[in-house]
Description:
Layout: H1 2-17, H2 22-35, H3 39-50, H4 56-72, H5 76-88, H6 94-105, H7 116-128, H8 134-146, H9 150-157, H10 167-179, H11 183-196, H12 201-214, H13 217-230, H14 235-247, H15 251-264, H16 269-281, H17 285-298, H18 303-315, H19 319-332, H20 337-349, H21 353-366, H22 371-385
Amino acid sequence: MKKLIFSISLMLIFATAFAAGAQNYEIIEGINSYFTGEYEMAEETFYQILDEEISSTEKYTVYSYLIKSKLRNRKISTAEDLITELDELGYNNAEVYWLLAEQYLNLDGRYDNAQFDLAKEYIEKARDLGFYGFDQQKGHAQAELGLNNYQAVKDILEPLRDQLSRPSSFGALARAYKELDDTGNAINLYERLIVLEPDNAGAHLDLGNLYIDQGNYDEAIEVLEIGLDRSPEVNSLKFALGRAYKASGEYDSAIDQFNQVINRNRYNYEAHYQLGLIYYAQGEIDKAVESLDSAIRYNNEYVTAYLKLGEIYLAEDNHYRAVSYFSNAVEINPDYALSYYYLGKAYFELEMYQVAQAELVKALRRQPDLGRASELLDEIDEIISGMEEDELEDDFEGEVDVNIE
């Protein structure tokens, strides 16, 4: 159909060209080269025409097709320069802005990555010039998604929701709702996306994680198992399934999934951490410590693992070791209130009340609504109020900073 429309258009141009002279034939020749995919030839023809005296209308046509040829040849920088020249001549071609934006969106994967900021800029220029149809709106949403502007994605795509048919558009809107904490809409869209694209591992993963966050573990397990049946090599699906099994209390199945993750990638510190939590829940302290130590080995800034190890040692009355892990957590992330709370709790159990008090104050400065820190601080204040000054002197002379290997 496109070829027929072009052929008719070309015939009309030829019909009017008899009265216009040789230059029109050259323009037609260049356009014909463009539509037949001979972009280098089209470029050469259009440059030759621009060296001649031509009318403003002809100049607009030549520039437009020259820009399109450049974009087809992926000469983006030159195309941008030509668009600027066309603008300076007083012409604004909205379509070429969109075609340039398409290149920056990298929809066909020709480049290493997309440049969403530039894509957004050129789409908005096309929109301001009145070129903003269905495809342009979807492209705009894709650019906003790449820039993590989730509200903008929702605002663009929600009015088009019933017209969407491509998985990428459903995925963009679903992701926006997910990031905006609108779980109901996100789940609905991911379910529709999976119907459209059954082998989409990412959709199964996101939907499964949403069900986990909802506490709907049976649904999560079902979705993730289906995803793994279709994409058995995707480690992130195995990790999410392990989380779902763990949350539902199916520890043996969870352990199996996390071990599969580690077998494929032993550096996956989160899988080691999850195993540590399961072993601790099962009362297997040595295994828990071993797994948590592995998590820290593969990510020595994993604060959550340091805190869990500190908790374990605190529960085992190994206060020196607990203080060391909590201190490491504070050093890694000085803005995390929970680390100060646990450090204060360890000092409290060591009866170093003033030191504990100082750490809990630091915790509350960073997170004023940390209730357990407030409660423990009140308890310490009450203890200190009944103590003599000489009793407050710290008598803890042991080395606290145990070396953690």
